[in-house]
Amino acid sequence: MINNLIFIPIKVNGETLTFLLDTGVEETVLFSLDDKEEVSLHQLEKIKLKGLGANEAVEAFKSSKNKLEVSGFVDDNHELYLILDQEFNFSSQVGIPVNGIIGYHFFKDHLVEINYDRKKVIVYADSHIKIRKRILKSHKKEAISLENNKPYYTTNVVTVNQSHPSKMLIDTGNSDAIWLFLSEAPNLTLPSKSIKCFLGRGFSGNVYGQRARMQSFTFGDTNFKNPIGTFPDSTSVSSVSFVQDRVGSLGGGVLSRFSIFFDYPGSCIYAKPGAKISMPFNFNMSGLEVQHDGLEWVTQTYQERGGTAAVYTARQDNMGHVQDNLKIKFELKPVFRIFNVREGSPAQAAGLQKDDRIISLNGKNAHYLTIEKINELLKSEDGRTIVITVERKGVQLTYKFQLKSIL
């Protein structure tokens, strides 16, 4: 679990790869094999793919008759798509190597439980009616429609005193709470207080838009007040073919507050509120977008005593010579870099810039941070002071600013 997204290991033709589990895609996609020596793919055919983003379709290869395995769950005839354009690789945004995305084919034949609190994905081999009866005792059943092999759920959305029954894609591959496409929902308007943001990267390039607090929307038995809504701009969605009446997506910012059973064969889901159900909807108040920028070797000095590491000290022997018990340990540690600074944000006002390398954040060495920890800090509390040291053109600079909730 990183940024409300789910990553699972799957063997592709015998090689273990890491996949984003994404109900918002139909086909299985590979876009990075950098951390693997060799992966065999069968029967390659050149094609083009289009999706979110402002650019043209990207080149890809379709591969057939592949074997995918995860925990005894086997598909001997799996079709997947390989994208060679590394601009689409989002490993740097989540901080771990991600090789691909899997969606519909993981869910299509079985009852699948995603328990966000326990960080478990369970595929039920037996879809007997007894399992569904047991689930109904604790979970609320909701009807979904499967269109283009993706799940859709209709809910009531209120933006600015305007209520609109809204057909939403259930999208576990989207880390935000809710996306709304205003071009598809003329009855909904953008709230007056909003901020322009970089939203991520789609199949067809970078996605930009605005974030604003909506009044409410409902999922299951829960009515959420003042959630953060994301509104992609019209250019970013121009190449997308929407199913009829779709106006947006429900993402991990909502789904991670529940335990959810996906029942594609039964055209329904079962949802139960989880531990995070009452948590407020926060956003990155700093204006900084941070990415993982590889690894570097770091040396640590220490002295071993009875199998444990202790602080290094030098001592003299009987001849007066200093005995050096120094031990050096080499470790690979992450490097983080700023890849976007939101215009008008506290970070921009302080002087931070794109491509600055993060050295420390609120006194913590960046080598011991993760993307998840950095994002948690930058979303944490209105008025919180952030002290960040960065390296720019070989010079270390320290900046100080306060998080400011403008929504």
TrEMBL record:
The keyword Ribonucleoprotein does not apply. Residues 17-53 form the Peptidase A2 domain. It comes from the Bacteria. PROSITE patterns: ASP_PROT_RETROV (PS50175), PDZ (PS50106). Keywords: Hydrolase. Residues 338-393 form the PDZ domain. The keyword Hydrolase applies. SUPFAM superfamilies: Acid proteases, PDZ domain-like. This is PDZ domain-containing protein. It comes from Flavobacterium cheonhonense.
